[in-house]
Structure formats: structure tokens, C-alpha cells
Q: What sequence folds into this?
């Protein structure tokens, strides 16, 4: 029986990079695809960013593949206006996706595309493990004419489960990032991570890094990191900063995983409305997200390696999209990867 993938093209360049993903998957095997409107496209069609029907379809799928959401069309300071990002938060909560994995490994052929010096980034191979369903993004929110608040809250159980993901993923060291000198949630975070480490993973090295120091070290000594473990907002910011080590956010995939249900796989970049419709979108982060889906979501590690190898060979062969200083558009980038698959 073929595995069923729910596809969420979303907004902006989303549909343009979803098409190459389906081409690659069709070349690899028999998959069943079910497309749903999501984000701004769903707001336009249904008035909400995530419908009950779409969430139900995602829950029964083998994996969920998302392209991109958002855009200026739906930006608003009105707290009651529907926002595309609400679809993402609803999907993460609805599927119990508490762990976000973002690998950052610049390819030697692209070292010079990074704004950082080659000697700084050479040999970098790190993983950001971000807690995805707690913290300030999900805490109680208040708003009056004169004031607003967002509550940052974490439970011991939430911290324990994300810490386990990081320790299991680490080769040798976990860098737990917090702000324990100021925040009570960070002090709990640090205590709980130490407990999990002592009881279950004493063979893995653990260090604690304050978030501001971590932000500096990511730029000055990224090779220092193996696995970075952190809460929701810090992880959101640090993983985008880490993206620039590779030279372009257009190269970074991500996986959001949880309990027994399907995982969600998506590129780290946004919907890039400024280049939507021009054919210039870089599909490589989307194709690498397909590889993460094959590995972590569908248990097809050989197919995942084949996709990653094809992307690397295409870049070795001279493929350069505009974000990497070249002129290859979506179509020629897709062809280069397919030719190497």
C-alpha cells in the first residue's frame, strides 16, 4: 500500500516549490498525495488558516509536507484578524509536534557563499533542537489599549521530552541554551535538563549557554556546537541565525516531530512574496525537507540519502540559484537535482 502524504502548498512561492518536491517523490516511488489549502490561501478560501477538515486529513496521513505560509496581504495588528501563522501553530499543537529539528551543515562547495569567513564555518555540522509547542508563543495573551502581555510557561514534562530528543540526537555534546540569569522558566529548564542528563544520558557531554552568548558563538565559532537544545522563541531566532552559516536560508530543511502521529516537514524559509511568480525561487530547502520526510517520517533512509546526494552533486556541478549568487531558477534547479537522482 502506498504511503499517503498530505501536501500544504500554502502561499507565495509555496506552490512553486511544492511542484519540484512532488516530481522528486514521483521519481522515487509510489506515493499518494492529498492537497489542502493552508495559511493565507485557506484564510481566503475558508476564513481560517487551518480548517478542521485539513487538520483531520493531516492526522490520518503518513507524513505532512508544507511549503510556505504568510505574506503582507494578511499582515494586521488587529488581534482578531486571522493570520496565516495561526495555521502553523494550530498544526503543531493539533499533531502534538513538540520537537523541531533543524540541521545546519554548510557544503564545502558553498563555503564562499556564506557571509562568514571560510575558516570560521569549515567543518560545521550542528543540529538545533527547538521545543515547539510551549513557551511564549503558546502562553496566555492579553491586550488592552495601554498594555499587552504574553505569558512564557513551561512544565517539567515538556522540558523532559524535548531534552530526550536532543540527547538521543547528539553525537557527543548537548549545548542547552537558556536565560537562567534572568528568567524563572529558564531556571526550571536548566534544572530539568540536568536531571535528564544525570539519570539517562551521562555519557553525553552537557553544557549550559546563555542565549546571548550562544548567538555570538554561532557566528564566531559555529564548529563548537554539536546539538543545540532550546525553548521555542530562542530556538526560532537562533535557527534562523544559524541558517546564514550555510550562505542562504534557501538551503535549510526542518522536521517537526511528536508522538505517534505523522511528522511535519518544511523548509525553514518563508513564502518570499517578493519573488513569487518570477520562477526564481530556490527549491533546494524544500527538496532537502523531502529527504528529512523520507528519513524521519516514512522510514526510507536510502531514498533520503539519494535526494541529499543529488542536491549536493547538482551544487558541485555548478547549480547556483539567485540567493546563492547565480541565475538558475526553480525549473533549472529542479532539473539539475532530478538529473543527479
A:
Amino acid at each position: 500500500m502506498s504511503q499517503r502524504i498530505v501536501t500544504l502548498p500554502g502561499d507565495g512561492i509555496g506552490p512553486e516549490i511544492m511542484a519540484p518536491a512532488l516530481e522528486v517523490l514521483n521519481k522515487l516511488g509510489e506515493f499518494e498525495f492529498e492537497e489542502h489549502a493552508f495559511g493565507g490561501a485557506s484564510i481566503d478560501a475558508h476564513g481560517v488558516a487551518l480548517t478542521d477538515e485539513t487538520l483531520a486529513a493531516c492526522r490520518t496521513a503518513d507524513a505532512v509536507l508544507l511549503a510556505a505560509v504568510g505574506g503582507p496581504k494578511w499582515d494586521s495588528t488587529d488581534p482578531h484578524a486571522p493570520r496565516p501563522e495561526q495555521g502553523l501553530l494550530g498544526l503543531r499543537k493539533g499533531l502534538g509536534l513538540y520537537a523541531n529539528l533543524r540541521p545546519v551543515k554548510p557544503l564545502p562547495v558553498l563555503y564562499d557563499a556564506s557571509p562568514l569567513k571560510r575558516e570560521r564555518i569549515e567543518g560545521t555540522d550542528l543540529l538545533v533542537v527547538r521545543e515547539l509547542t510551549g513557551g511564549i508563543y503558546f502562553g496566555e495573551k492579553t491586550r488592552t489599549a495601554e498594555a499587552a502581555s504574553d505569558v512564557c510557561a513551561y512544565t517539567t514534562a515538556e522540558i523532559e521530552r524535548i531534552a530526550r530528543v536532543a540527547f538521543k540526537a547528539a553525537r557527543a555534546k548537548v549545548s542547552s541554551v537558556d536565560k537562567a540569569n534572568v528568567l524563572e522558566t529558564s531556571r526550571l529548564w536548566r534544572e530539568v535538563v540536568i536531571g535528564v542528563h544525570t539519570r539517562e544520558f551521562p555519557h553525553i557531554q552537557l553544557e549550559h549557554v546563555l542565549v546571548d552568548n550562544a548567538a555570538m558563538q554561532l557566528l564566531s565559532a559555529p564548529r563548537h556546537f554539536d546539538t543545540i537544545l532550546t525553548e521555542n522563541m530562542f530556538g526560532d531566532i537562533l535557527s534562523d541565525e544559524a541558517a546564514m552559516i550555510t550562505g542562504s536560508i534557501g538551503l535549510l530543511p526542518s522536521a517537526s516531530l511528536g508522538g505517534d502521529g505523522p511528522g511535519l516537514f518544511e523548509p525553514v524559509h518563508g513564502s518570499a512574496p517578493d519573488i513569487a511568480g518570477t520562477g526564481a525561487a530556490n527549491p533546494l530547502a524544500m527538496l532537502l525537507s523531502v529527504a528529512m520526510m523520507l528519513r524521519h517520517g516514512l522510514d526510507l533512509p536510502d531514498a533520503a540519502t539519494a535526494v541529499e546526494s543529488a542536491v549536493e552533486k547538482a551544487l558541485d556541478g555548478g547549480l547556483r540559484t539567485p540567493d546563492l549568487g547565480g541565475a538558475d531558477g526553480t525549473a533549472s534547479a529542479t532539473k539539475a537535482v532530478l538529473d543527479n537522482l
Remarks:
- The CA atoms of residues 218 and 242 lie 7 Å apart.
- The chain has a mean pLDDT of 94.
- Residues 1-98+248-341 form a domain with the Isopropylmalate Dehydrogenase fold (CATH 3.40.718.10).
- The two ends are 24 Å apart (CA to CA).
